[in-house]
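Example (one chain per record):
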Amino acid sequence: MGVEIERKFLLVNDHWRNQTERSERQVQGYLGSVESCSIRIRVVGEQANLNIKSATLGIERQEYDYPVPLAEAEEILQHLCKKSLIEKIRHYLPLAGHVWEIDEFLGDNSGLVVAEIELADVNEAFTRPDWLGSEVSDDPRYYNVCLVEHPYSNW
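Predicted structure:
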């Protein structure tokens, strides 16, 4: 079983930008969600994955990823996913033994910027950079699956 332990935060400034190691555009769409999980397809560059994630609130969730041929993933995004799609630029920032992922959302979620850190254990300590703001790990509005139905532009 795959387990993701992830904490999400808002940002207080953009001082993180000069620490970015690399950035990539991502597009993802949701095929659906049920009480127990969400199912999405994500395209990053020339690679695509089908992802199934438990619908548990909080920082620890079950997660499974499976590679999908790019052409099929693009067809799924176009024809089978709920609209609107999640579009974002993901920036990677190494810091004190962890890699922060900063998501700068585009489209209907433009203006939203969220920092995420994946941990090996729910109680794992990590360095809090000066650009880190309030934690939103327990706020479902910031989950990508919720941003499809309730985009940031409508808050």
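Caption: The CA atoms of residues 17 and 23 lie 10 Å apart.
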